[in-house]
Amino acid sequence: MDARSDTLAFRARPPWWGGDLQTLRGSLAYRSRPLPGRSERLRLALADGSGDRLAAMLDRPATARPGPLIVLVHGLTGSEESPYVTASAAFHLRRGRRVLRLNLRGAGPSRQSCAGHYHAGCARDVHDALAALDRRLLADGVVVIGYSLGGNVALNLLAGHRLPIRAAVIVSAPIEPAEAARRFMAPRNALYHRWLLARMKRESMAPGARLADAERLAIRRARSIYEFDDRFVAPRHGFSGAEDYYARTAGARKVGAIGVPTLLIHARDDPWVPAAAYESLRPRCPAEVRLLLTPRGGHVGFHAQGCAEPWLDLVANNFVTSIIGP
Predict the structure, then answer these.
(1) How far apart, in whole angstroms, are the C-alpha atoms of residue 213 and residue 11?
(2) How confident is the model at residue 7 (pLDDT cuts 50, 70, 90)?
(3) Cα→Cα distances 320→7, 96, 108, Å
(4) Which CATH superfamily is domain 19-176+250-324 in?
């Protein structure tokens, strides 16, 4: 594969054929490796008066080049240590770029300094965290890369930001959260659903979370992702219920307001997020938004043949460098 081409044709790497295996490979075959360069823990204050501070890891390459800060936003129940996040960080560090691995409110190490919790539309948190950075880090602008739920958060951010964002890449995002919730609760996804719901409950009740007794009870009693969102997430963040929460945070409904060069990457065989939302979005995309739909790749998978580095990162890099240069 030619890493310089505008679009790298995706071919699944054996034996990871099919959407499910592509989705699972990141966890099943992941090997943690130290990142090149040096890393610094940051605690970034939010402006809502809560006292919460988002944890972030600022990674600097051994030899930095001028260019934008790469900001990576993880998915649901993920963190700065999610395999796709660390792989992307390593990719950009090797190219001399600074990387910020941002943990959403209450996720991973953010729980130590946050009593609250993130949700699919928490763009204000990301905005505040980036605005709290040393201005020198933002001097050359920002490139935002969001994965899964973090991609939906990023779309909400792009539609109304006041930040020096120069480009964005969105990967496997549930841009219509209601459709994604229904897909997760389908019988074919029963094991996935049980696994994710258990992780959501553990994350939301981790030590340090500020929860009312009624909220703890709602979390424990939730039998589905929909019930979790309807009885805990929605009322906690001012939505009238799950349907209102899904509708008001849907990234698909914010795309028309995006004025930043943005690439949306999604696989039609994603077992968690239906591709139909992307298909219906295609005729409504503004000129700044490009949609790349592949037949295969799974959910934040895209483990490809013939690539010495992650296919996702190569494609994202081609898109970004076409806008800001190498």
Answers:
(1) 50
(2) low
(3) 12, 14, 28
(4) Alpha/Beta hydrolase fold, catalytic domain (3.40.50.1820)
pLDDT digits (tens, 9 = 90+) for 133-153: 999 999 999 999 999 999 999
**Domain edges within the chain:** 19-176+250-324
Q: How far is CA 295 from the centre of its chain?
A: 21
How crowded is residue 91: how many other Cβ atoms within 10 Å of its Cβ? 19
In this structure, the dihedral spanned by the alpha carbons of residues 89, 90, 95 and 99, taken in order and rounded to 10 degrees, is 30
Measured distance CA(92)–CA(83) in Å, rounded: 14
What does the alpha-carbon distance between residue 21 and residue 12 come to, in Å, rounded to a whole number?
10
**Partners of 43 in the beta sheet?**
55
pLDDT tens per residue across span 229-281? 999 999 999 999 999 999 999 999 999 999 999 999 999 999 999 999 999 99
How far apart (Å, rounded) are the C-alpha atoms in residues 204 and 194?
A: 16
Least confident of 19-28, 78-87, 262-271: 19-28
CA 150 to chain centre: 3
- pLDDT at residue 1 in the model: 30
Q: Say how far apart CA 124 and CA 173 lie, in whole Å.
A: 18
